[in-house]
Amino acid sequence: MTARSSLLLPLFRATPRAGWWAVAAAAALAFVVLPALHLLVAPGHPLHVSDHVVTVAGKIACYATVAVALDLVWGYAGILSLGHGLFFALGGYAFGMYLMRSIGRDGVYQSDLPDFMVFLDWKELPWFWHGTDHAAWAVALAVLVPGLVAFVFGWFAFRSRIRGVYFSIITQALTYAAMLLFFRNDTGFGGNNGFTDFKRIFGFPIAAPGTRVALFAASVAVLLGTLVLCRWLVTSPFGGVLRAVRDGEPRLRCLGYEPLWFKLGVWTLSAVLCGVAGALYVPQVGIINPSEMSTAASIEIAIWVAVGGRGTLVGAVLGAVLVNLAKSWFTKAMPELWLFFLGFLFVAVTLFLPGGLVGLLRSRRPRRPTPASVAAPASPDGPAEEVTA
Amino acid sequence: MRLLRVLLLCAPCLAASHAARAAPDEPAKRLDPAVLAGLAAEDSAEKIEAIRALAIQAGPGAVPVLQALADDRLQVAGGRVLVADGEALRDAATGAILPAPPDGAEAVTINNRVRRALEGTLSALRVFDPDRTVRLAAATSLASSVTPELLPLLDEALAAERDGAVREPLALARAQVLLRSDDRAARLDAVRALGEGATRNVRALLTAAAADEPDPEVRAAAARSLGAVERRLLLADVVNSVFSGLSLGSILLLAALGLAITYGIMGVINMAHGELLMVGAYAGYAVQTFFRRSFPAAQDVYVLAAIPVAFAAAFTVGVLMERLVIRHLYRRPLESLLATWGLSLVLIQTARAVFGAQNVQVANPSWMSGGVSVLPSAVLPWNRIAIVCFSAGVLLVTWLLLQKTRLGMFVRAVTQNRAMAGCVGVPTGRVDSLAFGLGAGIAGLGGLALAQIGNVGPDMGQLYVVDSFMVVVLGGVGQLAGAVLAALGLGVAAKFLEGATGAVVAKILVLAFIVIFIQKRPQGLFALKGRAVEG
Lengths: 389, 535
Fold this sequence. Notes:
The complex is a heterodimer of chains A (389) and B (535).
Chain A: H1 5-14, H2 17-39, H3 51-76, H4 84-101, H5 115-119, H6 135-159, H7 164-183, E1 195-196, E2 200-201, E3 204-205, H8 209-235, H9 237-254, H10 259-285, E4 287-288, H11 295-308, H12 313-333, H13 335-352, H14 356-364, H15 371-375, H16 384-388
Helix pairs in contact in A: 1-8, 2-8, 3-8, 3-10, 3-11, 3-12, 4-6, 4-10, 6-10, 8-9, 8-10, 9-10, 11-12, 11-14, 12-13
Chain B: H1 2-19, H2 33-39, H3 44-58, H4 63-70, E1 74-77, E2 80-85, E3 88-91, E4 106-107, H5 112-125, H6 132-144, H7 151-160, H8 164-178, H9 184-194, H10 200-212, H11 216-266, H12 273-294, H13 302-324, H14 333-355, E5 371-375, E6 378-381, H15 382-404, H16 406-416, H17 418-423, H18 428-453, H19 460-475, H20 480-501, H21 503-520
């Protein structure tokens, strides 16, 4: 975003004043308050924020970014992807390659090669690992690989007008196939153990409090940036076409639009956002393995969005935060009940809460017209029948 | 089927018992006392030498003595070797019962090294056993691990053997020994005899012979034999692949049939469909446990009793799902994906809570174990044959139900045009429930079939659900013919690719193929004509 102010202005105007206040508050919390409480307050102090909390918060910020990315395609363009975990994991793997390389000779086998390659008795790096010791190339890969995969897959799928549940099922098959591929040792990504035991990132020790806070802040920055970008997109004419794709693609085509490029564009963007979130996620949790590509992981992203309320960007964030907090709590307190809870959540939200939590709040409180919503009638919160027809 | 198999198994046994040799209680010829004395030697190497020599000299006649040695019943008194036979003592050389026990009889002890050699020899001697199955097993194991000193034994066994199926591995074993002989004619015979074989061991032997043989004529014969063996092996591979593909395909078919019906009629993709397989499989497990406890004598028929139980269990779960959840999501297909996924999580966790997280064992009934050997290295297991037949039966019943009954007519009517069917008085709500239950019940039957060849665990449905979606996608919705062709085609293709590339790559290739296929025919193999193209 180094463009001139004339380009930034619509971006700025897209978000209502209340939204900017919320962004500013979140930024202050993430960039000032939490780092100060973690780094400056002594560990015994009641106000101290522990390592664990910082990591979980950073992780959830990454999840929220993914949720917003999925909401962009599902809530606005009506394309339900059950394979967004693939793009997330691809971004994570791309950046994980850099993290593996920066372990250097500090691994178990003290070799230049990553440990798992020594273990498999490989003598040199496979071709796709070349250049991954440069952080910039790894970051580029984290953006390019998910983007390219999404573009190619989307081009084939959208071109032949695969829509609705068919598309969802095919995305599920895609991530399932990728998971099988990454489970193989021969694929060159560590098989079912994936990448772990990272030591440093950009030269800093990866577990140090300062690094932790910086990664958390970066995750929140990406989340806020994603929110502003998506807000701008969905309030622009482009967003109008997306909603038209969702509500009546054949009619849109009759009006002379080619939905292919709109769908492909938003689909690829969504994948790239997931890739970036994945790249930030991996150094914080310290591991990436093929289970991130499992069909269950991808479909869980959809429930975050559904719980919060699809078609509203705030809803996606809200859903991701709430469901993941619930998951953290359940898996500690009563792990055997978590799947029951999640299962009933899926059923209950789709049956009784089609608009999600945000929809519930809106229906309780009559909407006050704000300047932005008058200028561009944004967030659709109509009945779900329209959304997925 | 069972009766037929019993008859089939009995016929060769009866024939074989006539061909069986003299009962082993009476040694056919006297054993050489000098060799027998070696059994009682102090040195292990000498003992082993004596064991082998005795086996080769006396063939089956050596069995009682060697068995006595293995059972620690062999004694030695003043150079005479004696066999303890209950209370009595026999002279090992003649088999005559001694009138009185001699003084100073000592037991012959053996160490582990001798015991191993003894067991090897005894198992080779089983080629003389009166039981055909034992002979066949012994001959087959000899054919894969023969040693040169067994040649006389093999000759004798071949001379006595009448059963072609047992002769074959014996002849192969003999040829393997002869292949190493110095005599050119013997090698030539061996190479020709090996050309009758159809195992990988034979192929390896012949490959070596074709490369290393000094004599050109023998070399050429080896190359010819090698060609014949390779053709036979290839054929066996093809038969095996096609058959395991068909059995995989018929399970996919049972899984996909229900999915095709429910998707066709309601446009709802049921992500919990795999869990209905699981319900059926656990129903089979429950019936098996019940039979073990209450009717241990009738265990083999538990499968038959499990068929209605599995159907009923999955039917009930399916109807409940439809009534409570899916009914309310008819016009929201994307959301029904999520809701049914939630149902699948609940079902998985329920199975874990009830049956435990570990896999449970569902045993094949005894009449399903074993297999039919169509080619020397292509054995079709009975359990897979039963599954293929079972799927065909279920398919037939489903087809009759849909084409020939009033309910089937209603189901087809609602599939084609729900509003119109409702207008002419079809009770669409009840038809939905029944059709969903029917699809679920078929999946339950699929689960029962799956339990016969695979693991039964809470997660088992997840493995098959993506595959069965692919069948529906490939076959087109609401089409039995499409589902059948797609399921069998995918099964066979997957098995062939598996042979060539390994299981994982095969799966990826199949998925990639489907994605490309959808490009060309978005409506599947068989599209219903006149369906609304876009909504």
